[in-house]
TrEMBL record:
Enzyme Commission number(s): 3.2.1.26
Span of domain Glycosyl hydrolase family 32 N-terminal: 31-336
Protein name according to UniProt: Sucrose-6-phosphate hydrolase
Protein encoded by which gene: sacA
Location(s) in or outside the cell: Cytoplasm
Domain Glycosyl hydrolase family 32 C-terminal: from-to ranges: 392-468
Family assignment from sequence similarity: Belongs to the glycosyl hydrolase 32 family.
Amino acid sequence: MTETTFTLSRAEAFIAEQTAGVDQSFKPGAHFSAPIGWLNDPNGFFFFRGEYHLFYQFYPYDSCWGPMHWGHAKSKDLINWEHLPVALAPDQSYDHNGCFSGSAIVKDDRLWLMYTGNITLEDGTGRQVQNMAVSDDGVTFTKLASNPVMIGEDVPDINPADFRDPKLFEKDGRYYSVLAAKHVDEVGCIVLLGSDDLENWSFESIFLKGEKDQGVMWECPDYFKLAGQDCLVISPMQFPVVGDDYQNLNSNIICYGLVDWESKTFAVERIEEIDHGHDFYAAQSLKDNQGRRIMIAWMQNWGRKFPTHDLRHGWAGLMTVPRQLQLVDGKLVQVPFLTEGSSDWTSLQAGEHLESSKPWPIRLDLKTGLSQHWRLEAGSVADQLVLVWQDGQLTLDRTGLEHQLGGEEKEPLLTRSIRLTEGLIDVTVLIDRSSIEVFVNGGQASLSSTAYIAEHLLSFSVAEGQVEVALQNLNEIR
Ligand code: FRU
């Protein structure tokens, strides 16, 4: 395909003509996914004129990654989403190989986007350059005539072919952007750019440089303050495994630290994995009009098989449910935006079990304080996902699933666990047609994984103690 092949109007016409043919079998009912085609990172997640806007890495024409567009949707409640026209297509010389990830900010009641243009130069080498686009109505975007606004050659000590994913923020009347870059020392690093007007950008600092044992490249940074604490979210590729943590090929971490605004550098004090499931990557956050810090991530990991692509279902990729972030006693707490839980509780004693064939998505709430051993099975015996609480450990087990992960990743791929030394008090489980998300102890830990399960069957059994259970189909009450 030539450089000018991709346009917004071509994408819109394709979506309008082809979406009816998308196979809906595994399409999520309570998670955001694209109407058709491929989706990866959340982009431009921002609160604008009373609504939450979500953009995303999008290739409408196939269920696999391709030249990136920006898909777009908005929501009033972070639960129900309305699809909007494609916001960006790779139709310029400075983004012809893809409009890569980026972010949004509001200035003068206009919505501004900063994104990475992925390009190949005539000599065949790659470059990643930073571009801006602006919108008066929050729907139609105009790329600036002055693009690119920053190139990697103007940043010291980085490889200009790996310089991407700008995340905008404002501080003391000045605009900043943190970006991912590969340092010439072959480690990940975060670059800080600054601007007074969002149009003219300059290099400020190397905000943070990674260590040799912290992954080969850091993607999708996000800087914000949470309860007064400086936080830097990063998606490092090949972060080393430590016990039950960082088991995925690519992780998503939150660094707690301190920014020195003189030198414009971030000093890391502590690192935590955000989610302990198989699929949580490229998270991005916003602050809304109530001052809430809300995060959403791509519920997937690179280097894996994509079952809906292999099955030719015409779509691939979904987002996690958005979560409100809080810092409680120095610990990250994630409270998901979900349709309210049921007040219809059933009490199960040891040896008792509950079965359901309600269609998914389904929400299961558990009060488990008195039980040391219970088990949840989702799907049929031949195609089953298991969540088990035993010996102080909560384990999600994909061993019995028909659609296994596979891919370039090494073991351990089947299970993901969290050890809860303080015990397990409550659990909220969201099972959708292609995923499971588990939040424990009011959101003190979470496990998010894809799980493509055909039969909407559920069995919950208690082996020890007593558990209170509430179950509801989310489509019934939307
Ligand atoms: C992260 C990422 C980004 C890049 C985008 C391309 O998943 O690799 O670094 O901008 O995806 O689609």
